[in-house]
Amino acid sequence: MSETLRPVLILDDEERVRELLMDYLGEFDGFDLFGAGSGEEALEILRQRPATLCVVDMRLPGMDGAEFIESAAAERLCHHFVVHTGSMDFSLSQALKDLGMVQEDVFFKPVDAAVILARIRELIKDEV
Fold it and tell me: Which pTM was predicted?
């Protein structure tokens, strides 16, 4: 039985962090991975290629991660979001909560990528 690849966007302005996460997730079946270094770039990519899930850094050049999530959700370019941030004081805004995000969707760097993988799998398990 062949599994449909689920598109997953990794948004992080630190290329090395983005690549490491993509390399790790790429070791598992089920993901069609692509990356972006800014919120603006990610929106342009998603307009051509919507994603099932986006892993989003909060501190980005230009548009920050929260603005990206709100914009991508408003345009229906991504169904689920996971935050991967180095901002230890980050907390979900009411706007992000209103989009269905919960504390379990927030990961602080450094984090074991296996923990993010488990959350991604949980969020997209019912996606076709």
Answer: 0.92
